[in-house]
Amino acid sequence: MAFFGFKDIEKLSEVDMAVYRYIVDHDEQVPYMRVRDLATGAHVSNSSVMRFIHKIGYSSFPEFKVSFKSENQDLMESKSDILTMFTRDAFPQNIEKTIKLVAHLMLDADNIVFIGMGASGAIGEYAARQASSLGFNCFAVKDPYYPLIQQLSNASNNVLITLSVSGKTTELVEMLNNFVNSADTVLTSITGNIESPIARMGRYALSYSIEETRIHKYYDLTSQVPAVYLVDGLLKELHSQDLARQLH
């Protein structure tokens, strides 16, 4: 029996759910309550509380309280810094300056292209959509074999922003090699590795530090929160610079 692991929620009535929600919201007090205390708090009858206790698999209220207290303590002890994924120390000291410089490049670009694969590609799509909403000619490329060089062959003043946690993705490096010596295209990146080939290929690199996490050798579970944070900061700065330019 496990209260927090109870799976048959759909079998609970509205009265049952009132009891359930009250217990969840008062997890520290419940082990010290009597049946009538819980009933009063949930605005139900004593018998409704007992029907709920039996329905979730306990034979008595004392049995439920002992089990619930133990389960709740296990949950509390297993808690880590779930929401503290990174701090300001995860970014270089000059990150704000670099964001302003990249935003300035984007401000006057004829084409802005976000490039990435996998989760980075999804963030690139998000960034491109937001930049387009701000009125900029922007799109995302998730396929490293996309004929981007042909598409931009007659275009000038292009900014390519590559997203890559490792900064070493071979397919992306090969794609970017087509633009390294281009006078019409500026390469920049958002990466977790400032020493990586992708970071070194560009004029600017918005970098961050975070521990890479992989499972089953190939599946990357590294947090992309810092990358999204930088993307949002970049878009905010781009919008700010655009407004400032319009005022002048």
TrEMBL record:
<dbReference type="GO" id="GO:0097367">
    <property type="term" value="F:carbohydrate derivative binding"/>
</dbReference>
<dbReference type="Pfam" id="PF01418">
    <property type="entry name" value="HTH_6"/>
</dbReference>
<keyword id="KW-0805">Transcription regulation</keyword>
<dbReference type="GO" id="GO:0003677">
    <property type="term" value="F:DNA binding"/>
</dbReference>
<dbReference type="InterPro" id="IPR036388">
    <property type="entry name" value="WH-like_DNA-bd_sf"/>
</dbReference>
<dbReference type="InterPro" id="IPR035472">
    <property type="entry name" value="RpiR-like_SIS"/>
</dbReference>
<dbReference type="InterPro" id="IPR001347">
    <property type="entry name" value="SIS_dom"/>
</dbReference>
<dbReference type="GO" id="GO:1901135">
    <property type="term" value="P:carbohydrate derivative metabolic process"/>
</dbReference>
<protein>
    <submittedName>
        <fullName>Transcription regulator</fullName>
    </submittedName>
</protein>
<keyword id="KW-0238">DNA-binding</keyword>
<dbReference type="GO" id="GO:0003700">
    <property type="term" value="F:DNA-binding transcription factor activity"/>
</dbReference>
<dbReference type="InterPro" id="IPR009057">
    <property type="entry name" value="Homeodomain-like_sf"/>
</dbReference>
<dbReference type="Pfam" id="PF01380">
    <property type="entry name" value="SIS"/>
</dbReference>
<dbReference type="InterPro" id="IPR046348">
    <property type="entry name" value="SIS_dom_sf"/>
</dbReference>
<dbReference type="InterPro" id="IPR000281">
    <property type="entry name" value="HTH_RpiR"/>
</dbReference>
<feature type="domain" description="SIS">
    <location>
        <begin position="102"/>
        <end position="244"/>
    </location>
</feature>
<dbReference type="InterPro" id="IPR047640">
    <property type="entry name" value="RpiR-like"/>
</dbReference>
<feature type="domain" description="HTH rpiR-type">
    <location>
        <begin position="1"/>
        <end position="75"/>
    </location>
</feature>
<keyword id="KW-0804">Transcription</keyword>
